[in-house]
Amino acid sequence: MAPHPARWLNSAPSHALLALLALGAKAQAAEPKPGDPVLVSVRGMAGMPTGTLAGRPLRFFAWGDGFLAVTGLPVELAPGSALAQVVGPSSLGGAPLELTGSLDVVEPGYPSRELRVSGKYVAPPASVKARIVADRKAFAVAFSQPFSAPHFAQNFVWPRQDRITAPFGDRRTFNGKLSSQHFGVDIDGDPGAQVTASNEGTVVMARDNYSSGKTVLVHHGGDLFTAYFHLSKIQVKKGDKVQQGQALGLVGSTGRVTGPHLHWGVKVDGIWVDGESLLRLDFFPPTAPAVASGDTALNNP
């Protein structure tokens, strides 16, 4: 599906002829929506840039012959124009280079659904409250990894091939009472089916949690994580280095579920984003700083 071209309005010193800025975001509707991951790529700066997208700070790292930031559009972001601003030292010297641009964000149209689960997951008994608190602390520790450039050398792939039973963003009501939003992609599977790593990284959680069940979290660098929930068996341990396609565990129905499946989540820059959109992003384009497959990079005048 064709990507939506980002429209960049670059404003910078006239001598900064090498300065380029591009943004990559592809969504199911061919236009970026709240909940999509985004790549912001910059070339032509002498040092690490800083910036924001839709008011959220960008964290860049050296990537190829320029710099890259991996972030996301929050699900609560209102449709409309999302402004990007990037500042950094020009490779030709002189005044700092300033780049600005905008991205047209469309209405996501996330559906709503009613689900039935065990009552203990809607109103957890007092006996498990301590466990829930411990789970939250464990997730916070797992997600607090030192910031670094990505650890992988290829784009992301599905953790298993099967029917998608629930996409990212579903607005859910459990047993007619508890409302939440689905921050992952549910992939069908028979109990015991293999689940593999979507990309190279380090296991930062291999734990049985109350709601997510047997869970594996993999850190890929760049504050980018993939999550694998409701496993029947975990086949790695915390601290393991894993390769793309390596076995992580088996499909199950542990935790708060309606049946066996894999809940596959992606968290970047502190927010959950759509894994299907992550799969469409190209971290290794043939010509920097083009990103995704809808390359839009404008030379400054």
Protein model, in words:
By secondary structure, the protein is mostly beta strands. It folds into two domains: 7-105, Sandwich (Immunoglobulin-like), CATH 2.60.40.1930; 112-269, Glucose Permease (Domain IIA) (Distorted Sandwich), CATH 2.70.70.10. The chain is built from three helices and 23 strands. The two termini are 32 Å apart. 44% of the residues are buried. Mean pLDDT is 82; it is low at 1-18 and 288-301.
What is the element layout, followed by pairings?
Layout: E1 7-8, E2 20-24, E3 37-43, E4 50-53, E5 56-58, E6 60-63, E7 66-72, E8 80-88, E9 97-105, E10 112-115, H1 119-122, H2 129-142, E11 164-166, E12 171-174, E13 178-181, E14 185-188, E15 194-196, E16 201-209, E17 213-219, E18 224-231, E19 233-234, E20 241-242, E21 247-250, E22 261-268, E23 271-273, H3 275-278
Parallel strand pairs: 10-12
Antiparallel strand pairs: 1-9, 2-3, 3-7, 4-5, 4-8, 6-7, 8-9, 11-14, 12-13, 14-22, 15-21, 16-17, 16-20, 17-18, 18-22, 19-21, 22-23
CATH architecture label name of the largest domain: Distorted Sandwich
The share of residues in extended strands comes to: 35-45%
**How would you name the CATH homologous superfamily of the largest domain?**
Glucose Permease (Domain IIA)
Give the helix level as a range of percent.
Answer: under 10%
| Contiguous runs where pLDDT drops below 50 for at least 5 residues | 1-18, 288-301
